[in-house]
Amino acid sequence: MIEVINLNKSFEGNHVLKNISATFQKGKTNLIIGQSGSGKTVLLKSLVGLHVPESGEIKYDNRNFLTMSSDKKKKIRQEMGMLFQGAALFDSMTVEENVRFPLDIFTNMTFEERRERACFCLKRVNLDNANHLMPSEISGGMQKRVAIARAIALNPKYLFCDEPNSGLDPRTSIVIDELIKEITEEYNITTIINTHDMNSVMGIGEQIIFIFKGEKYWEGTKDDIFYSENKELNNFIFASPLFRKVRENMKR
Question: What domain range is 225 assigned to?
Fold first, then answer.
């Protein structure tokens, strides 16, 4: 579980995060949604230590990330998995080498143990025959699955996903969403997904927070969204005619 308490972050006098408080549950897909510039990316980067907030607390299973020493922060970072927006694979490495990379850096496992773990993770994302391919030889959806395999290589307690469906077609996006949800439940991970994909929200949004102009304006589940009276949330979610129609049908 990750707890955020009264988090504030500014850039050159611009107050980007304003007293954000939220709890991200273990074993659930926790989504952060909001318009571009709302602060959701800054929140995600603050959680993983890429930004340092001016005030507030970030607790990883009751461990305050912001006040601990560099050595202790390093240990928590080793408990994190990160799925970047563009997969961020190394072009010069094979699929297997990409997945093995965090094992090479952060563990004392033998080469055979690292290779075995990489193969296990690739098999878990249904890519057990892609080991020796280069990133340029596989599709965008396959690259995202390789990135997921790399993100879980260290058996993380916490998984962060930044726009995991960016650039993918709708069918592949569903595959990626379902895979993230399966892995979250299977390994009981605290998963946080930063997204503006409404299909993801409605498909796997077990716990959702909506950020508007740096503030948490709403919190709930995908089912709660259809009955929300929050004006800003409704303007964001139901900008799509499809979702407006679904909501109207549910209210009849």
Answer: 2-251
